[in-house]
Specification:
single chain; alpha/beta; eight-stranded mixed β-sheet; globular
Amino acid sequence: MADAAILETRCPASLPGTSVFDIAPAGEAGALPYRVFVYTPPGDAPETGWPVLYMVDGNAVFATAMDAVRAQASYPKGTNVTHGMIVAIGYPTDEAYDPWRRSWDLSPPPGQAYPPFHEGGPEVRTGGGEDFLRFIEDALKPLLQARFPIDRGRQTLFGHSFGGLFALYALFRRPTAFRTWVAASPAIYWEDTLIARSRDAMSADDWCRFTGRLLLSAGEYETAGLAPFQRDREDTASRREHLAKIRTLGMARDWAGEINALAGRADAASFESYAGENHMSVLPVAVNRAVQAAFAVEAPAS
């Protein structure tokens, strides 16, 4: 049997229903652009418009989310997932992450300065969460709403790790901006649990305005117990010490209960642990949960 011939091309794979564009915040001299990945389902939108799943770290999560909704929405009676629109906010890079920019965008103010990630690199700054939130709410959302049929009452925000930290910050700052908030493996510990200031600054009226729900989650191995492959290695002791300090799983679980108490309702927040997953392997599982939450089939209004 003859070997197959591979015809090499330079054309990137095309993802149906997708578009990509770069956008810079208006009125900010020298502002760096964001890369926005958009997926729109086939066919006509519902009368109310498409439900939308907004995601940060867009380069790392867009394709996973798109495949999850395409596969499940084709069989809604078996998955309880319907079609929806995905908006993933990332950066002009071919890498999964831009560590320098996300350090600024996804962390709450006031922030701090840190050494460069590598020799000769720029100083790392944190604390730009308010600027990033303003970009999403005041620039990106209006732009998309003018171009696509969007259900403004069914919008979800997803973030993982630093992105989960940002999702919490966005909730505490603008509790009506989204209906569903998904904070996967959130870095609650960051900068001595600075995010608690934003939570505790919410008034009773703010908590009353928060009528949506928050989904908190973490992987089973985001504890000092470590994943099996991380045990009995040279860095095991330091890993245990670090995970015991940041308590990703424990803090996410604890905060679900605390937020329910602050909101005055038992369904304001929930927590889920994903079996067999660590901080990075949990990402596709958490993305799928966000898709299921954002695009759940809803009974028609009576």
